[in-house]
Amino acid sequence: MMMDKAIVIGNYEFIGFHLCRTLLNKGYEVSGIYNNQLEYVEEMQFEFGRNANYTDYYASGEIEDHLTNDNQTVIFVNYYDYFHQRKEKVFSRIMLNYQLEETSAKIVLVLPINLLSNGFEEARKEQLFRSATAQMVYLPTIYGPWQSSQSLFHNALLMQNNGEDRELKWNDREYNQDAIYVDDAINQVITLAKTNSPREVILKSSLSHHWDKCAKLLKIPQQIEQKQRLFNLNKANQIIHVPFSCTPSEGLERQRQQIERTYLHR
User: Fold this and answer.
1) How high is the pLDDT of residue 47?
2) What 3-state class would DSSP assign to 72?
3) Any idea which fold 5-264 has?
4) Phi and psi torsions of 263, nearest 5°
5) pLDDT at position 3, please?
6) Which of 15, 75, 99, 123 is most buried, by CB atoms within 10 Å?
7) What is the model's pLDDT at position 165?
């Protein structure tokens, strides 16, 4: 399809921020929808710079006119971050303002791969996920600058920077079978949004044992590595292997530098 505009719901979350930045760098007109329960918005806005193609909207009905009768707009619904931060109720409040089933724009749901496990079947019964036209893109662990502060990789990097020697805690929403660096994942999501690809797609790193390589670099204990290995991934139509543009070491170093700038020098 021809895409000239994009709307990103959750634009100041991890995935949403990188979607906005990459789309702007590619020359698209971007509208971002956010809520007021956010940290580091000013730092993220600084990275966007002054860009005439970018508009912020608070999570209300004011963007409703942009959602109707425009088949050259793609709406990226960033559920991935809300899930990993346990902010599903915040996400639901945002979505109550929009009647996405009535829009002619293409909808791309950016989802955590965890939803394909039996433990999260209830989430997939939401009306949003039953949309006949929405494309669903399932992501494994995504890492890089601005990763959620609740993620295992973020906390391991923060502990290394602080010289701390405390026990890392396992988050039951972590996924340790695969990982993709954020720029690579986002570029693939945007490519899929512009094509008539299958309705349900899993992104998988083309680098084997990607998560394990990151865990080794971060000195994540083996007992944490061994948790939560059983997932039923047979429900999506296609697996797409995502090329990697940097090594795990390079990607984690970029994330470490952002953590140092944002958290340690504030």
Assistant:
1) 79
2) coil
3) Rossmann fold (3.40.50)
4) -95, -35
5) 75
6) 15
7) 74
Alpha-carbon distance of 71 to 57, in angstroms, equals 21
- Average pLDDT, consecutive stretches of 10 residues, N- to C-terminus, the chain (266 residues): 83 94 94 77 80 81 56 89 87 72 81 79 56 84 94 92 77 90 98 86 96 94 65 69 97 95 70
**242 near 180, Cβ under 8 Å?**
yes
Q: Supply the DSSP string of the chain, one letter for each residue.
A: ----EEEEETTTSHHHHHHHHHHHHTT-EEEEEE-S--SSHHHHHHHH-S-TTEEEEESSGGGGGGGSS-TTEEEEEEHHHHHHTT-HHHHHHHHTT--GGG--SEEEEEEEGGGGSGGGGGGGGSGGGG-SS-EEEEE-EEESTT--TTSHHHHHHHHHHHT---PPPPPTT---S-EEEHHHHHHHHHHHHTTT--SEEEEEESSTTHHHHHHHHTT--HHHHTS-------SSSEEEEEP-SS-HHHHHHHHHHHHIIIII--
Closest CA to 130 of 153, 109, 152: 109
**Quick one: which of 53, 32, 52 has its CA closest to 44?**
32
